[in-house]
Structure formats: structure tokens, C-alpha cells
Amino acid sequence: MLILLLFFLIIGSFGEATENGANLELENGEFSDEGGNGTFFEDEYPPIYYLKNLTKDILGDDYEKEVSPFTISHIAEEDENPIPWNYTIFVPQLKLIDVDEPKEQMTVIMELVQHWKDERLIWDPEKYGKITELTTRLEKIWSLPFTAFGASEVVEHRDQNYRTAQVWHNGDVFVLIPLKMTTNCKMNMRDFPFDTQICEVRVGLPLHGPHRFEIGVYLPEYVVNSCTLGNSAWDIFNISYGQEVILSGDSNFDNNKLGVIKLHLKRNPMFYMYMIVLPTFIINAISIAGVFMKNTEKMDRLTVGLTHIMTMTFILALIADKLPKTEKIPLLGKYIIFGLCTMIVAMTFSTYLKKISKYFSEKLEKTRSAFGQKLRRFIGSPLRVICIIIFQAINLFAGLYLLYRLICFEQKYDDKKCYRAEPVMEIIPERFANGTLKEA
């Protein structure tokens, strides 16, 4: 019994010492050591302690999130030409959604990462448990007012209640913005459907003079060299990006400094070759043969001609709905109009061919020369066949010309199935608001 009593006394004393040594309480955000020996996790506080003190120090009442850090830096700068601050746009994802030719618009979805430096958010990691970065709500810090220039619609695919920013210990701030953007894009449809277009995505910072900042745009190599940025109707065969300055031309207004991403688009023309060119070629060939048939009556020829004209007009209307209303006729439109004119000439010629044959046959019937008799036989059925051959050759020539343009078009961009843009900044020439370039 004495031995058991001594054993329980030893156990009780050890438990009381352990409880007093580890009695740590968190009071007002700080850890206290009451009755202990002052050790905790090898003389280190837990990470939550450092994180709370860090957010209290850099995001406390002294941090003015309504005031731009660049404005403060500019006011404090005594030099007349202060060093501009850097604003960088990084595009890790980009995808073409649609190109609306009649409205001259392009729609893309993209992930855009904004980067700037806020010197008020700098801390020493050694004083805060080696914490080098933290993620916080965007409304807790000052953020740059992102603006898309020349865009008719910008939709941000992000819940406004869960917008976050990543802050690094050296003051670097990163903000991810997933968005869908529709931009205006002036198009040249002269070579349609063998055309290429250049559409731009332009972003900038309003109310910031261009002398105060430098804007950089960067796309990673896996985006630049990707083969899947386009869609079924368009391929993107090149991407260029850089900084552009829009000159106001007026000393009372600041110039605009923009970050620009230029997408070089190539149309996939096979849809139009199958759905428009091939049917048009067949309709032309059948209509030419129909109006020159030997036993075709005048009303039948007229019916064939009018049906052909109505069909070509309908096809032209389909093309017109897909194109902007420009003064230049596209190549496909020229082909259809050429076939329409060819058919009108063929119908007119076939209508008077019988009268012409009868007139010359009566004249040549009176002559007794061998040449005259041969010519009289020629202006009958052989002349009709020759007319069919001539007009069919014209139709075939027009079709082969479009096929030649298709082959040249595909060969020209065959080696650009995957893009050849270099992942470096490009300084785009300065230009005035009216579009004219600044003279060097």
C-alpha cells in the first residue's frame, strides 16, 4: 500500500507540472506563457500568430486603400522627370470565341493577371515567421482601375464577393481577372473568303498620365505557340503584343499609353468552297447547257435564265448578310457576279442564235461554192455546240481561278499552323487619334 500511495503522488506531481508548463493562452492577439518554462514549438510562435500581426501591421488603419500609391510616390518625387512605375499585364489563357463580320467585332475570353508594386505593402519575412506572401480580399487594398479601350462589351467572369489579390513581401501585387471581351475590329473583306484580319485587344489606365507609368504585356510561350486559340472558322497564325501610345495632338490633354495584343486571324475557307462556290459552279454549268439545247424553246430558255438569275441573287444575299457593308466587292462576290453576267450573255446569244443561223443559212444557200456550203452547215448544230464549249470554258476558268487562290492561300499559311510569335515585348509605333502614324 505504501508503494502504491507513493506511485500516485509522483504521477499527480508530474501532471500538475505539465499543465502549468503548457498553459498558454492567447490574449488580445498575443501568446502568453503562464506557469511554463517559456518554450513553445522550439521557441517559435505558431504561423497564425505571425499572420495576424502581419495583416494588422500592413493592412491596419494606417493603410489608405482609397489613395493610389503611385500618386503618393509622384508627389514625393522632387525630380521634374520622375522614374515611371511599371504596370504589367500577363495573359496565361486566351481563346477566340467569335468573329462577327457584319458588326466588325471580335469576341475573346482570356485570363488577365495585373501586376503592380505598392511600397506600402512591403514587409520583412524574418520578422513574421518567414511569410513571403499572403492572399487577401481585393477590397482590402488599393487596386488599379482596369479599362479596355475600343471594347463594346467586357464581362468579368468572377464573383464580385470573392475577388482576391496576392501580395508578396516586396510589395508586388497580382490580381487575376477572367473576362470575356468584345472589341471592335476593322476588316478588309476584299479577298473573302481567302482573307486574313488583324484584331486588337487594348487595355490601359485612365486618369494616369503616360509619363507616370510603363505598361508591359506578356504572353507565355505555351500560349503564343499554341494551336488551339482559334475556332472552327478562324485560325490564329500569329500574335504580336506590346505598348502603344495614342497621341492626342493637344497640349491640354494627356496622351494615352496602352497595352496591345494583336491577333492575326486566318479564315478557314473550305466551308464557302463547299457550300457556295461548288453549287454556283454546277448551277452555271447546267444553266449554260440548258439555254443552248437544240430543241429548247424561247420561253424555256427564258425560264432557265430567270431561274439562274434568281438563284445567284439569293446566293449574293446570303453573302451580304455575312459581310460588312463596304465599298469593295469581295472576291467571292465577284465570282458570283461574273457567273451571273456570263449567264446573261449566254442567254442573250442563244435567243438570237436561231435567227442568226436562219438568216445566214438563206444567204449561203444561194451560193454554190464549197466553202459557202461548209459554212452553211457550220452555223447550224456545230455552232451551238461551240457556244456551249466556249461558255462552259469561261465558267470552268472562273472556278479554277478560285481553286488556284485556295491552294495558294493554304500553302502560304501551311507552315503557320502553330504560331511563330516571339515571346518578347514589341513597341508599336505611336499614332495619333485619327489613326495616322507619328513621323520619325
Automatic annotation (TrEMBL):
PROSITE patterns: NEUROTR_ION_CHANNEL. The chain crosses the membrane at residues 271-293, 302-320, 332-353, 383-404. Residues 53-205 form the Neurotransmitter-gated ion-channel ligand-binding domain. Its main location: membrane. Residues 1-17 form the signal peptide. Pfam families: Neur_chan_LBD (PF02931), Neur_chan_memb (PF02932). InterPro entries: Neur_chan_lig-bd, Neur_chan_lig-bd_sf, Neur_channel, Neuro-gated_channel_TM_sf, Neuro_actylchol_rec, Neurotrans-gated_channel_TM, Neurotransmitter_ion_chnl_CS. Keywords: Ion channel, Ion transport, Membrane, Signal, Transmembrane, Transmembrane helix, Transport. It is a multi-pass membrane protein. Gene3D superfamilies: Neurotransmitter-gated ion-channel ligand-binding domain, Neurotransmitter-gated ion-channel transmembrane domain. Residues 277-377 form the Neurotransmitter-gated ion-channel transmembrane domain. One of its GO terms (molecular function) is transmembrane signaling receptor activity. GO terms for cellular component: membrane. It is found in: Membrane. Belongs to the ligand-gated ion channel (TC 1.A.9) family. This is Neurotransmitter-gated ion-channel ligand-binding domain-containing protein.
